[in-house]
């Protein structure tokens, strides 16, 4: 780890705008796009919040408390706790799996109160039995798990629910995905690709608010969509 001294760069500094100021923003808000984004991302922030909150609670209970001498020293951007090959599992009151968060290496940084996970993998199941999968080379979360960044080959997959066909599978891929669990918002200032049973769409950026039910694909937007069986001649 590189020592950044006593003034580390804020890990959650404000991102660049989703599109250059004054530049064109092409919004896609058609029925199919809105439904696809809503179905894929509806429960993702809530599920991530639960999994990462469990991890944060575990850290608080198990991280050694530094002595008075160390506490008096200026904090450096160095991890105070490291876990390798960890797994955090949460269950419903009935004992069914709710979420499983796994990673190759996890480190907690006390100076910024952030958690970094290398090789992060998530599996979550909602109340209907539908599975959401997530993975990335790296995840960065603030201390209360209200802001989570997935970077490096980030993938979020919404598997078909009980009784649904393969066409109900939805997936988002990108090098960067940022999730705000309290406001249920997902955004990326980098290109993303959205896959569904009806085809795929590519965009220069993504901004989705579940509370407002508004999804926006901006920048260079393109894709190939198949006609639904009902619309076929």
From TrEMBL:
GO MF annotation terms: glycolipid transfer activity; lipopolysaccharide transmembrane transporter activity
Keyword Metal-binding: no
Organism classification: Bacteria, Pseudomonadati, Pseudomonadota, Betaproteobacteria, Burkholderiales
Keywords: Cell inner membrane, Cell membrane, Membrane, Transmembrane, Transmembrane helix
Regions that span the bilayer: none
GO cellular component terms given for this protein: outer membrane-bounded periplasmic space; plasma membrane
PANTHER family given in the database record: LIPOPOLYSACCHARIDE EXPORT SYSTEM PROTEIN LPTC
Record-linked InterPro entries: LipoPS_assembly_LptC-rel, LPS_export_LptC, LptC
The keyword Cell inner membrane is annotated on this UniProt entry: yes
Protein name: Putative transmembrane protein
